[in-house]
Design the sequence.
């Protein structure tokens, strides 16, 4: 949802008259009250829980995000608890959810709230926007749902609903389109109950106005929907043609010391997957075999000269903008005296695999190593 969130307040003045009326808002509200999913942050609304749910659920389905939400609320019942935790602990709980900068920013923002605001969560849209990792979507969602501020949310679900209601023919990623959608969202907002309204539009997109085969026959907004009238629902939102997703081969080394402990290192916190731990390795260059790349990359990153013996696993993984195939090599036992690495690093035994946060593809390899004994 992060990619499709936009600020709305400044766009409201550009709103054209709309066919959506007070009656449409009321029908949507009634539908939401009767059909909303019973989610923990809705049943016992607490601003800290709403904040956690909004960060965890960005670009994540509710069924995938729910266990993470439960885990986070249990470990960090208050913003103070998160602020006091070490980043490693927070990343470990986040592992598998992806988009790790969201986790690092959540931790950073919790510390700011505790150190600068005495642990009191801000109420206004503008103050939320000033915190790390909080964009227009999240600021609107938290300030409206937790504090009743009149800011419309615009995420992927809202875009789908609004572009269908208006049969909007422009490519939605263009900035003029975004301004138009923001303006529609803000003009449709029920300012008396902005939180409920925002949740209702998002819920409609998640449950009824689906990307394929929307359930228009049960939609509370069907009478106002231009796309339904024309039978063109699935045409919207209009998107740019997708570019092919690049693919990279990555070679990594399982390097052991004389006690059979495995070498891992921590990624720079500013990098993608920052703060997570990983095996040494990197991209297979043109003309190289994965084994050659493993030998070169391990030497470049750690100073250790290793001999890749066997390929113990080939793991495929997809990130948001590219895909990888990970070739993992068991390397001959090395002398650790050559080790020359500036990043935080460790030699870990199997019993410690769970103590560190790893990217998902590395975690799959650890599971394979654990099974091998
Ligand atoms: Fe979406 Fe159909 Fe409702 Fe239009 S009528 S908003 S296409 S579910």
Sequence:
């Amino acid at each position: 949802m992060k990619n499709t969130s936009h600020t709305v307040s400044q766009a409201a003045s550009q709103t054209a008259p709309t066919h959506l009326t007070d009656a449409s808002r009321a029908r949507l509200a009634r539908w939401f009250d009767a059909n909303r999913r019973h989610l923990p942050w809705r049943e016992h609304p607490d601003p800290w829980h709403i904040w956690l749910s909004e960060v965890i659920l960005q670009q994540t389905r509710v069924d995938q995000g729910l266990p993470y939400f439960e885990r986070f609320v249990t470990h960090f019942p208050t913003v103070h608890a998160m602020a006091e935790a070490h980043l490693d602990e927070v990343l470990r709980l986040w592992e598998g959810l992806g988009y790790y900068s969201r986790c690092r920013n959540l931790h950073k923002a919790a510390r700011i709230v505790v150190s600068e605001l005495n642990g009191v969560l801000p109420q206004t849209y503008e103050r939320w926007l000033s915190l790390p990792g909080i964009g227009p979507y999240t600021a609107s969602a938290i300030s409206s749902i937790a504090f009743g501020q009149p800011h419309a949310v615009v995420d992927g679900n809202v875009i789908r609903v609004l572009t269908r209601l208006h049969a909007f023919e422009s490519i939605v990623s263009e900035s003029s389109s975004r301004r138009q959608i923001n303006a529609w969202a803000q003009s449709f907002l029920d300012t008396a109950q902005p939180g409920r309204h925002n949740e209702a539009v998002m819920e409609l997109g998640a449950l009824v106005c689906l990307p394929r085969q929307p359930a228009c026959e049960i939609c509370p907004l069907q009478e106002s929907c231009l796309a339904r009238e024309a039978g063109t629902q699935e045409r919207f939102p209009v998107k740019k043609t997708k570019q092919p997703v690049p693919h990279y081969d990555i070679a990594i080394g399982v390097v052991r010391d004389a006690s059979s402990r495995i070498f891992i290192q921590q990624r720079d916190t500013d990098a993608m997957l920052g703060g997570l731990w990983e095996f040494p390795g990197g991209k297979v260059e043109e003309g190289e075999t994965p084994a050659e790349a493993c030998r070169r990359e391990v030497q470049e990153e750690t100073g250790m000269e290793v001999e890749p013996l066997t390929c113990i696993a080939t793991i495929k993984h997809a990130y948001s903008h590219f895909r990888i195939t990970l070739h993992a090599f068991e390397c001959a036992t090395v002398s650790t005296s050559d080790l020359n690495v500036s990043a935080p690093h460790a030699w870990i035994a199997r019993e410690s695999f769970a103590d560190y946060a790893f990217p998902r593809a590395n975690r799959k390899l650890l599971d394979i190593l654990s099974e091998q004994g």
Q: What stands out?
A: Residues 246 and 322 are 5 Å apart (CA to CA). The first helix runs from residue 22 to 35.
